[in-house]
Amino acid sequence: MLRGERVVLRAIERDDLPRYVRWLNDPDVLEYFGFYRPMSLAQEEQWYENMLKAHDTLNLAIEVDGEHVGGCGFCNINHQDRHAEVGLFIGVKEMWDQGIGADTLRALLQYGFDALNLHRIYLRFYAENARGQRCYEKVGFKQEGRFREHNFRHGRWIDETRMSILEDEWRAIVKGETA
Ligand SMILES: CC(C)(COP(=O)(O)OP(=O)(O)OC[C@H]1O[C@@H](n2cnc3c(N)ncnc32)[C@H](O)[C@@H]1OP(=O)(O)O)[C@@H](O)C(=O)NCCC(=O)NCCS
Question: Which of 77, 91, 119, 163 lies 20 to 30 angstroms, CA to CA, from 83?
Fold first, then answer.
């Protein structure tokens, strides 16, 4: 398991799946997500079985004080070019804006650079997700592009922002060389 300051990132167990179904059917959680179909437990179980066999993903449960509060991980892990996409969500809405997202990302970045030997870690999100953007900037991600009207959601076109952080940038932050 991975540890942040407050979070523990652990493997996902089958018992966790009903919580994912509840969270991933919550319109507030989904406001900035690409998912748009109501999700069943059977679909989540199918995702879980596929995830167990996948070599280019790492999905983890986020725990705070022993409570499962969300999910996170890497996908599209590319060992030749040493890059991967990172993603996360906090399903327990009462826990938003308490630094859990930033703590989770820092633990993932440390693992990504120090254990997976990645060189670049990137993420994508709906440009209007101001909370997400602030969270990613705090951790050190830099904006590298904005894909205009890339997504159709809530009856309208939405831009997608892409951000990344390089290994050197992360190491400078850890050493306290940059904010
Ligand atoms: C996005 C998410 C992962 C961030 O995690 P989090 O634990 O809430 O994030 P943090 O508390 O570390 O940081 C959030 C920051 O955004 C700020 N913020 C909140 N609402 C904001 C807004 N409307 N505009 C600007 N900043 C905002 C908070 O004040 C905080 O900044 P601060 O620490 O400087 O005060 C989490 O809120 C979440 O899962 N949301 C729902 C699902 C989602 O959007 N997932 C991401 C899909 S790409």
Answer: 91
Ligand 1 pocket: which of 22, 24, 97, 124 to mutate (most atoms within 8 A of CB) = 97
Which amino acid is located at 152 in the chain?
F
Residues 94 and 107: their CA atoms lie apart, in Å, by: 21
Residue 139: which H helix or E strand, with range?
helix 130-139
**pLDDT tens digits, one per residue of 112-149:** 999 999 999 999 999 999 999 999 999 999 999 999 99
| β-bridge partners, 3 | 8
CATH superfamily of 2-175: Gcn5-related N-acetyltransferase (GNAT) (3.40.630.30)
CB atoms within 10 A of CB 1: 10
Tell me the two tokens of residue 125: 């999100």
Closest CA to 68 of 123, 114, 130, 15: 15
pTM of the model: 0.96
